[in-house]
Design goal:
The protein is an alpha/beta fold. The protein is built from nine helices and ten strands.
């Protein structure tokens, strides 16, 4: 693993028509081997993964990659509230971040997506296949609809735990919540306002195994132990992509689910596997 020291990250705001996006740019150490645009996960997972994303960005920069982290519209320190977020708006943010990198670097451009950010990166890459040279996926969500269901369950759990709130005061199923969204209601879930349009976009996303990309993919997937394989769903999706001719390299790493733990989690093996995966690709893909 390369041990060059990356320069300090440079924060700035990227101007957009509807406001600005907070960005953190990590300059490459030495000769630039390519550019990487980071696509963060959904809602609270963004906050839980900040430490690992920072470690990954620094390590990739130290290995010679220009890395841009961008807070999507309505997220982090960017303009707007989460309730203003839309899937199409997020893809426009990726286009702006990719353009910023392309204007400064000639090497390959990869999208690095974590969890739902991996599905967003994949969706964007499929729309502009000639603009993305590779995908780096960290524990990708397999389906947008299942991820939405898990998010809606937080609302149900919160209602059940609320002191003094009758158990009949909240819809009793995720389908009831979907019905409310379909009727145009904005739902507050774990401190985030979910707009019906964003929820509908998540439900409409093609499953990961059906959305094969045209570019090479390096997939970092958590396993429970060194002798274990990926979860069945991830294994099936990877096999489906490979069966369609996708240049996919799956990299299993023993790792706790840092995207869902309340404590700050670090895993050096995960970051090392990420850097080694891109180093194995060389300056191309």
């Amino acid at each position: 693993m390369t041990v060059a020291v990356a320069r300090p990250a440079e924060p700035f705001f990227l101007k957009m028509e509807d406001g600005q996006r907070f960005c953190l740019y990590h300059p490459p150490a030495g000769r630039c081997r390519g550019a990487v645009l980071y696509v963060h996960p959904f809602a609270e997972e963004m906050n839980r993964t900040r430490r690992m994303a920072a470690l990954g960005a620094r390590a990739l920069a130290a290995s010679g990659h220009a890395v841009l982290q961008i807070d999507l519209a309505g997220c982090g320190d960017s303009s707007g509230d989460f309730g203003d977020a839309r899937w199409a708006l997020w893809k426009a943010d990726l286009a702006a971040g990719a353009r910023w990198l392309r204007e400064r670097f000639d090497g390959p451009l990869r999208l690095w997506g974590l969890r739902l950010g991996a599905l967003l990166a994949l969706d964007y890459a499929r729309e502009v296949p000639h603009s993305v040279d590779g995908l780096l996926l960290w524990q990708p969500v397999l389906t947008g609809s299942n991820h939405l269901t898990q998010f809606l369950r937080l609302r149900l759990a919160g209602a059940m735990l609320a002191e003094g709130e009758p158990s009949t005061s909240a819809p009793g199923s995720t389908q009831a919540l979907r019905n409310a969204l379909h009727d145009g209601e904005v739902l507050e879930i774990a401190g985030y306002d979910l707009h019906p349009q964003l929820a509908a976009a998540l439900d409409a996303l093609a499953p990961l195994d059906a959305a094969a990309p045209a570019c090479p993919v390096d997939w970092i997937e958590a396993i429970t132990g060194s002798n274990q394989g990926p979860a069945p769903g991830a294994a099936r999706a990877a096999a489906a992509w490979q069966g369609k001719g996708v240049d996919l390299r799956l990299h299993p790493v023993a790792c706790a689910p840092f995207w869902s733990t309340s404590e700050i989690t670090e895993n050096a093996a995960w970051v090392e596997a990420t850097v080694l995966a891109l180093e194995a690709r060389g300056d191309g893909t």
